[in-house]
């Protein structure tokens, strides 16, 4: 809608302010539309979770999955989470949405446990509003208990921005989560704040190396240097590392050779709906019979 407004405004050759105002209105309209439709999607089950495998660099076995939201709108079609998550965050709808994601992922994980599907860990993305909300750790504890899930099976992904803002509140919540026994990961590591002091303060278990560094790691010495530095920091502080967005054999090789622990990416698999993920896992050799490679 914003693009169409810009095009129209350009064509009619009006002054800059009018172009700008119209563009802003189109964007505001789009946000309202997404918010309205998202409420509807939550109520009518047009949302689902897809699961992207996380693979051990050492054994090639699937060690866990990351739950990723998918929205299939009946008229518009597929809408990307990078478009609707920010709107949900802005409108406060993220609390309801986030708790739907957590419950759905936990239920799925419990089902896999009881049917012997070998997924050791379920990663769930968190937004700032969820972490800052009073009682968040209790809510997580309740979801784990309802599903009789061992807390170590849940891996909560936070961004650097969440870790940095409202730091005393965040520290309290993360400490409660750590005491519960859930895993805490920093998503998109290296793209947020440059301050590293929070790595010392917070009870973190994993760093997820952002795709923007992984992209060049097959051939770009600068990306290689950054990734080596991240792996070095993680080692020194006792965190595991997960590379995001691995797409090529060259990227995989570099990460493997330099001691990255796990990876995710199209090189192994995209995020998949439940049945497809289960089929992929059935086709995998059991973890201890895998010698090397992916
Ligand atoms: P993220 O948590 O960093 O997730 C990784 C994104 O990279 C996913 O995009 C995934 O599909 C994509 N990806 C994985 N491997 C590759 C690859 O090899 N190549 C490429 N090009 N992409 C790859 P997706 O599913 O579109 O999600 C985008 C972002 O939306 C996520 O980034 C996360 O920040 C947010 N998000 C998704 N689901 C949720 C959710 O349930 N709650 C919250 N708060 N945020 C979510
Ligand atoms: Mg993530
Ligand atoms: Mg990420
Ligand atoms: Mg992201």
From TrEMBL:
Query: Where does it sit, as one GO cellular component term?
Result: membrane
Q: Which organism is it from?
A: Kineobactrum salinum
What's the superkingdom here? Bacteria
The protein's name: cyclic-guanylate-specific phosphodiesterase
Q: Which GO terms describe its molecular function?
A: cyclic-guanylate-specific phosphodiesterase activity
Q: Where in the cell is it found?
A: Membrane
Q: Which GO terms describe its biological process?
A: signal transduction
| Record-annotated EAL domain positions | 31-285
Recite the UniProt keywords alphabetically: c-di-GMP, Membrane, Transmembrane, Transmembrane helix
Q: Does the keyword Membrane apply?
A: yes
Q: Does the keyword Secreted apply?
A: no
């Amino acid at each position: 809608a914003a693009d169409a407004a810009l095009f129209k405004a350009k064509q009619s050759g009006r002054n800059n302010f009018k172009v700008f105002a119209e563009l802003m209105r189109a964007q505001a309209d789009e946000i309202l539309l997404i918010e309205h439709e998202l409420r509807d999607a939550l109520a009518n089950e047009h949302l689902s979770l897809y699961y992207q495998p996380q693979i051990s660099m050492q054994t090639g076995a699937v060690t866990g999955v990351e739950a990723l939201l998918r929205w299939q709108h009946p008229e518009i079609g597929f809408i990307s989470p990078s478009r609707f998550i920010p709107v949900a965050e802005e409108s406060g709808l993220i609390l309801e949405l986030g708790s739907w994601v957590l419950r759905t992922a936990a239920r799925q994980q419990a089902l896999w446990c009881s049917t012997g599907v070998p997924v050791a860990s379920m990663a769930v993305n968190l937004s700032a509003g969820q972490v800052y909300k009073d009682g968040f750790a209790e809510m997580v504890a309740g979801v784990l208990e309802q599903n009789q899930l061992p807390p170590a099976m849940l891996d909560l992904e936070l961004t650097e921005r969440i870790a940095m803002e409202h730091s005393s509140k965040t520290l309290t919540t993360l400490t409660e989560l750590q005491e519960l026994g859930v895993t805490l990961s920093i998503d998109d590591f290296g793209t947020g704040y440059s301050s590293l002091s929070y790595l010392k303060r917070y009870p973190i278990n994993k760093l997820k190396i952002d795709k923007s560094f992984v992209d060049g790691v097959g051939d770009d010495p600068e990306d290689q240097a950054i990734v080596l530095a991240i792996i070095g920091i993680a080692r020194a502080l006792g965190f595991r590392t997960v590379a995001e967005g691995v797409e090529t054999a060259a990227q995989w090789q570099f990460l493997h050779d330099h001691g990255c622990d796990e990876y995710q990416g199209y090189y192994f698999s995209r995020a998949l709906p439940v049945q497809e993920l289960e089929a992929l896992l059935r086709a995998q050799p059991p973890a201890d019979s895998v010698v090397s490679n992916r």
